[in-house]
Amino acid sequence: MCVVERARAAASMGWLVCGMVAGAGLSLVGCTESIELEDSGPAIEFDAGPPGMVEPDAGPPPVGSDAGLPECVGDDRMRRQIYFGTSTPTAIPLAPGQVLAVVSFDTCSGAYISDEWILTARHCGITPGRQACVGEDPSNPNVCLQVDRVETHPTVDIALAHVSVPVTRRLPALVPIPINTEPLNNSWIGRTMEAAGYGRQEDGSSGEREFAAEPIVALENELITVDGMGTRGVCSGDSGGPLLGLASDSTVRVFAELFGGDSSCVGRDNFTRTDLFVEWIEAITGPTVVEGAPCGGITPVGDCLGGSTAAWCDSATGLVTSETCAAGRTCGWSESDGGYRCVTDDPCLGVTAAGVCDGGEAVWCDAGTIRRRDCGACGQICRYVTDVGGFFCLPDPCLGFDPIGECDGTVLTLCDPDQGFQSIDCAMFGRTCGFSTRRGRNSCVR
Q1: What is the pLDDT of residue 34?
Q2: Which of 193, 181, 178, 179 has its CA nearest to residue 291?
Q3: Which of 243, 299, 322, 331 has its CB 3.0 to 4.6 Å from that of 271, i.e. a possible disulfide?
Q4: What are residue 336's phi and psi, to 5 degrees?
Q5: Percent of the chain with pLDDT strictly greater than 90
Q6: In which element (H, E) is residue 309 found?
């Protein structure tokens, strides 16, 4: 699984190899090795944050703004719980036990769709005797069961692997994720899904469970295509891994498994759909069993998932309820419901509780009121915090270092807000350090 906030990949590299940064157990990470090269192609540079975020129009802070407050501390939104208390998925509210359902086959991935059956890809070549591993620690899938039966679809890239004993006997906390049985149509295009797997990471290593939020961009024949838009995606070893989403009944489902991805690891990824092959799957596994998703960290106030889906806790049932907003409606604050729902007129103009960065300010919706905090006035920067799920004012790791960078002979010194200070000897790439008019700062130039 690969997520890149600042990277350049040569066409000959195949699967992109990046570096991993320290975080709060998150899979969506940036590159530790940035090669600052100036050439004829456009630089790939992205603001940190999930896809689909829309910057609000600049303007004076509205009533209720926090801009100009003298205290320079993290705001109370940092205490906001993300979905079900897990920081790993960022768009789909998986329960902790569902997070454990992602399977490692060492060179491929998969997902438990029942207590004994794993959905994966036919091209992975899983055979009886193979080990299917899961675990509480995302970097140590140490609960392994032997595959004793494999069924492969005759025409498409789907396989089902049966394990020798029910997985919950070995890992009681694991909750299988049922397949999606709901027919998909073009109304699903634009919805954000969550890809998962144990594939290659940015530093070339693999074997760690990771998730990446990607919107659906196409539905063609048996495939769902999602797009990491240059910032995130699947990589080698994620094949067979699940594409997760919310069904219309508000339950988390496996919508597809990974057929193949873009060679950059941050482009378009193709997954084989389950809705078209429900009859074949259920003829082997038995009927799909679905249980309601508990609310966990989702409150009755709710939140916006991916910008187009409202999710909230039904106090009467204790289960998650969700609604994907139809055309002409968006997820925003509903005064009548006292929470985030699908609305026609959003008082926060599309800004959610997660917020956005508007220049040097963190901007978010607080119960129908847009609020702003001037990060720069506090010597901080506005960044997206994945384990909390929002934009906040955070300490500046560059300590005010000039973003233009510095040249010392052929050595380029710069500071990336995510990775801190970096030093690159441009001579290693046959270049020198100098000012790039295209980038507006120092870079390795020809």
Answers
A1: 35
A2: 178
A3: 243
A4: -70, -35
A5: 36
A6: strand 309-314
**Above 80 in pLDDT, residue 267?**
yes
Instruction: Give the whole-angstrom CA distance, residue 198 versus residue 344.
Output: 40
Burial of residue 40 (number of CB atoms within 10 Å: 0-12, 13-18, 19+) = exposed
Q: Which residue has the tokens 């569902």?
A: 98
Higher pLDDT, 116 or 418: 116
* Beta pairing partners, 246: 252
The tokens 């609604």 sit on which residue? 323
Q: Burial, 35: exposed, middle or buried (Cβ in 10 Å; 0-12, 13-18, 19+)? A: middle
Mean pLDDT of 100-115: 96
If residue 443 lies in a helix (H) or strand (E), which one and from where to where?
strand 441-445
CA–CA distance, 303 with 368 (Å, rounded to integer): 12
User: What pLDDT, on a 0 to 100 scale, did the predictor assign at position 27?
Assistant: 27
Q: How far is CA 410 from CA 35, 355, 383, in A?
A: 14, 40, 31
Whole-number Å distance between alpha carbons of 76 and 256: 38
Q: For 82-120, give the DSSP string.
A: -GGG-SS-SSS---HHHHTTEEE-SSSEEEESSSSEEEE
Query: Per the structure block, which two tokens stand in for 142?
Result: 């140490």
Q: Domain ranges in the chain?
A: 76-87+297-395, 400-446
26-40, 293-307, 354-368: which has the minimum mean pLDDT? Answer: 26-40
* DSSP secondary structure code for residue 129 in this structure: T
Q: Are 309 and 245 in contact (CB under 8 A)?
A: no
Cα 395 to Cα 133, 314, 382: the distances in Å are: 39, 37, 9
Burial of 328: CB neighbours in 10 Å, binned 0-12, 13-18, 19+: exposed
**pLDDT tens digit string along 141-195?**
999 999 999 999 999 999 999 999 999 999 999 999 999 999 999 889 888 899 9
| Beta strands at 192-197 and 159-163: parallel, antiparallel or unpaired | unpaired
